[in-house]
Every structure is written in structure tokens, then in C-alpha cells.
Amino acid sequence: MKNAKPFLLITGFLGAGKTTLLKRLLHELNPRNIKADVILNDFTNADIDVATLNPSLLSSLEPLAAGCACCESLEELVQLCKKASKGKGDLLLVELNGTADPLVLLETFTLMENRLAFFPRYQVCVIDARYWGKRDEFEILERRQLETAGFYYISHKNEVSEVHLKRIKKSVKMASRNSREASIEELLDILSKEIRSRRILIDEPIFSSNPGSSVGSKQQFLKDVAHKLSHRFTGCHFPLPDQVDNKAMERLMNSLPTWVLRAKALVSIVDEPESRRLFEKVGAELIQNPIPIYELPDTPSSLMCIGPKLAPDKIRKLVELEFGVSNLS
Fold first, then answer.
1. Do residues 229 and 271 touch, judged by C-beta distance below 8 A?
2. In whole angstroms, how far apart are CA 141 and each of 70, 123, 132, 228, 229?
3. Count of C-beta atoms within a 10 Å radius of residue 258
4. Cα–Cα distances in Å, from 181 out to 171, 172, 246, 283?
5. What percent of the chain is predicted at pLDDT more than 90?
6. Going by fewer Cβ within 10 Å, which terminus of the chain is more open, N or C?
7. SS3 302
8. What is the residue extent of each domain of the chain?
9. 312 preceded by cis ω (within 30°)?
10. CATH number for the domain running over 234-327
11. CATH class of 5-229
């Protein structure tokens, strides 16, 4: 693999902070004169998160809208990776959406090693300190995203107590004994070193499943419990008025039922028509300070919801209650 580029896969559950980590990496790689090709996978509309990235920090950027990229859009993802392998970027960063099971993807990269020129291949799982161990039936899916990773990065550490954080770290370490915690600086140093040297590693890539486990066929994955959970998630879109009141938007987001595990709304604020805002909610928590979006001028204002038990009619009624039927786009 003489011309192979380093590859980093970013996994983690819904709202854990994967895109935030991606942005930090891109920002810190820039002064090192390193630019990446980026593939950003989101459940339905990947263009929204794509618009929050600074294009000057990238070599190329490709959105991929798919619930489980390892199944329904695996071929498209592979084609995007092939394209990136021939691009000008120094490495490839791929962010999988928060409901994806990475195992089939790992198998694909192993089987297509000669055609997908990426080496070494790393995986980092973003663990949300606020919600680790609180995913109920989906805990097995989050653990799958972790146990296939060589590294994990704990986000939102400053939002929990020191005692709680110690408990989280112990639990995460037990859940994946072959992974290790890494800071952003450590990830940057690892990637930078690989890019500078472009050497071929002799050791087995960190990007692998745990020793002793076997990666079976796609049919086997479709039968296992964790993978089935990744297919339980659905997404839905709802139109919103072209311009909304900030407080009204906050009320709508806060009124969403608990079975909406992730919500994003792209809107224009009445008092700030010069830019659009991205409102986000993870579980019961509304993310403060909506992100300004200066791209996607032609994308209609809308609300996107993701969850395992969505009831679109109930969400639609909440939207209509806040904005009225006649005001919706």
C-alpha cells in the first residue's frame, strides 16, 4: 500500500458530539498544513451538518444520507471512499450517523483492502458522558459502536461530576478492553505522524474488532441483536415557516416527546434574517446557542426527527400547534 492514506472513522450514538469532534480535528489539522477528504453520513439530510463545516479546511466534502450506511447505502459509501482515495486530501475522515452499526463496514474495508487505498485504518468512538449507560434497549448498539473502535473520546466531561466521570471511565474501559481513551491532541499527533511518514505499519491495524471475535457475512450481521437495533430507527421531516420566532422555535423543540432521540431544525429567525440557524436537541436536552448556517440558502426550513418509535402525526400536531397550518411552508 505504497500510496495509502490514513483513514479515521468516527462513530458514536446520536448527539454524542461526533460532528463537533470532526470540526475540532479539521481546525487543528489546518495549522499543520494537513487537509482531509470528509464523508459525512447523517440519517436523512446530511447537507445540514455539511453546511456547518468550514470548506477552507477541507480537501473535499461529500454528504451521505442513510440510516445504516453499512447496509442500504454501503455501495454508495464505498464509491465515495474510492473517489477520496484518488483525491488531493492527506487523509480521509468518515463520520457515521449515530444509529449505524460499523461492523459490516469494517468487513468491507478488509475485503476490499487492495481497492480501497487507506492504511492505517483507525476508529474513534465518541462517548457522551451524560448518557453512557442510559440508552435502555439501545445500550447494546452503543456498545457495538465502542467495542469495534481502537480509540474512544469522552465528550461533555465538564457537564458531569468528577465522581460520575470516574464511574463512566471505568465502565467504558470494561466494555471495550482493547480500546483506549484518546484526547483530541493524541488523535491529531497519530494522524499527523502517519501523514508525515506515509510508512506501512507491520502490526495489525487498530481498526479491527476485538481479538477472538470473528467478522462474518452480511447475512450474519442482519441476524444479530445489535445490528437489528440499528434498523429500528426511522426519520421524518416536517416543513416549517420561512421565518420563525426564536422563542417559538425553542418551545417546539422542548415539546418534542422523549421518543424523539435526536432533532434538528433549520430555520431563519425573524430578527436575524441575514443567516439561518440550526436548532438541535439530544434526548431531553435542547442544545443552547443554535449554530449559524450561511450555506443552503435554497433548502426549505424544516424539522428533522430521529427515533425508534416515531409517531409523525403527533409531531406534526405539535408543529401545527406552534405555527398554525396556514403558516407552514
1. no
2. 14, 16, 12, 9, 7
3. 9
4. 12, 9, 38, 25
5. 47
6. C
7. strand
8. 5-229, 234-327
9. no
10. 3.30.1220.10
11. alpha beta
